[in-house]
Write a structure and sequence with these properties.
It contains 16 helices and eight strands. The protein folds into three domains: 173 residues, 3-Layer(aba) Sandwich (Rossmann fold), CATH 3.40.50; 81 residues, Helicase, Ruva Protein, domain 3 (Orthogonal Bundle), CATH 1.10.8; 99 residues, Winged helix-like DNA-binding domain superfamily/Winged helix DNA-binding domain (Arc Repressor Mutant, subunit A, Orthogonal Bundle). Helices cover 56% and strands 12% of the residues. α10 packs across α11. A hairpin with a 5-residue loop joins β7 and β8. The two termini are 40 Å apart. The strands form two sheets. It has a five-stranded parallel β-sheet, with helices on both faces. The protein has a three-stranded antiparallel β-sheet with strand order 6-8-7. It is an alpha/beta fold. It binds a DNA duplex through α15, β7 and β8.
DNA sequence: TGTCCACAGGAAATACGGGGGT
DNA sequence: ACCCCCGTATTTCCTGTGGACA
């Protein structure tokens, strides 16, 4: 091909992409990439659209006594993931801190983020870091020492101290030690007026708490309901304004994304992800975002979930899945049965340098894969030819292929 | 009707691994 | 550094099962 032809072709393609640009500011489709101020700006708009109104009002009435120098009780907040608990509370506490500053009420708030599971030690350590009371330790310092440092850091502070403990149920071991410290010991040892705010996504969270702590803990409760379709539409609209060229979004797209998201989770983050994927696909195809593209994006996200699930699964589980896929596809047969699949599984393990588990454990793995709906299995009895499980894979062929490739890569086979 | 296949799946035993205490 | 403890993963052992077949 003539060099000029190639050049023209490439330039034409680039021009075409520019003409059909859909995404104006990619960063606004992914919260991770936004800096704090921008996040707050987005939030502000969301709240201005009357989303989370009820919850904010409850928070307000809970904290109102602070401005009258009263001491409110502690607060527990429940809601599923992606319902905006963390963001709403941070936003609210920011505002509250501002208001208090204006009215000369001393108030500090700290956000203790337990979004990854951690034992009591790390939680205390993080808290100490937040209060500038200590540096980060891996070990080598006793819990008592940490507690003392926290206490001495606060020894001269007499105002309000709001401690926002995010995702409390991630406290692994010794959670009672931590809770006892926060609920019983700390308030007695420091002059500050302590207000604890616990966020959790499980309703039954206080149930497995030390009864002594629980009875001591006076709680007010706020529940965050999942977003409904209308809320999600508002949230999405804001994102569209910031991130996309509006004319590239066909009518009904937002409604559709919102409906899909509210139907099966009500998680705002996932709704935005779906919008982002749609925009991305549309841009790649050089078209506007249409309803079909949303469907397409939805199924891709769905598929991606399966692939990441298998990618992050333990290797044994991967080997088991590989065996099932081999059995179902290679022999052009619909169903596999336990004995045969187990045999294939042993071979897989051998190839991947794993020690095969026993049949018993293998059966449990099949159940697990079934739960993730990576396969379907049910037991049948074949009379005097014994009982077995009929195992089938009910996923699009293309997806099965992707999963298999993923496993091969991961197991190096 | 009894037998027996080829596995399911429960319970208890055991191995493993990581973290805490000394 | 060492040992102990505890929660989890896996194994071992075992009983149960539906229906074809004789």
């Amino acid at each position: 091909m003539e060099p000029t032809t190639v050049r023209n072709k490439i330039m034409g393609q680039i021009q075409h992409m520019l003409d059909h640009a859909i995404i104006r500011n990619r960063r606004f489709l992914d919260d991770e990439q936004l800096i704090k101020a921008e996040q707050l700006a987005v939030l502000e708009e969301i709240f201005n659209a009357n989303v989370r109104d009820v919850e904010i009002r409850e928070l307000s009435s809970h904290f109102a006594p602070v401005l009258r120098h009263d001491h409110p009780v502690h607060l527990a907040i429940w809601g599923k993931t992606g319902t905006g608990k963390t963001l709403t509370v941070s936003y609210f506490l920011n505002l509250l801190a501002q208001m208090c500053a204006e009215k000369n009420v001393a108030l500090r708030y700290k956000h203790l983020d337990l979004s990854t599971p951690m034992p009591c030690f790390r939680a205390l350590n993080d808290l100490a870091c937040l209060l500038n009371a200590s540096k980060r330790y891996k070990k080598g310092i006793s819990l008592e020492e940490l507690m003392l440092r926290i206490e001495s850091a606060l020894a001269h502070y007499t105002g309000y101290l709001v401690l926002f403990v995010d995702e409390v149920d991630n406290l692994r071991r010794d959670k009672d030690t931590f809770m006892t410290f926060l609920v019983r010991r700390l308030p007695q040892r420091i002059p500050a007026k302590l207000i604890l705010v616990f966020v959790s996504n499980r309703l039954d969270w206080p149930d497995n708490l030390d009864p002594r702590v629980r009875s001591f803990l006076k709680l007010n409760e706020v529940v965050f309901k999942p977003y409904d379709a209308v809320d999600l539409q508002r949230i999405l609209n804001i994102r569209v304004e910031k991130a996309l060229h509006q004319e590239a979004v066909e009518a009904g797209v937002i409604e559709k994304v919102a409906a899909l998201a509210s139907r099966d989770h009500g998680d705002a983050r996932q709704a935005v992800a779906l919008l982002a994927k749609s925009a991305y696909l549309a841009e790649k195809a050089g078209s506007r975002i249409s309803l079909e593209i949303v469907d397409h994006a939805c199924s891709e996200i769905e598929q991606d979930k399966y692939v990441t699930m298998i990618r992050t699964a333990p290797r044994q589980l991967q080997a088991a899945m590989a065996a099932v896929i081999q059995c179902v596809s290679n022999r052009s047969r619909e169903k596999g049965e336990t004995g045969e699949v187990y045999h294939l599984y042993s071979t897989c393990c051998h190839q991947a340098g794993l020690r095969p588990l026993t049949r018993r454990a293998f059966g449990d793995m099949l159940n697990e894969l079934d739960m993730y709906s990576l396969l379907q299995s049910h037991v049948v009895s074949r009379g005097r030819y014994g009982r077995t499980r009929e195992i089938s894979v009910d996923l699009p062929d293309e997806l099965t292929g992707r999963i298999y490739e993923e496993i091969k890569r991961s197991l190096e086979m």
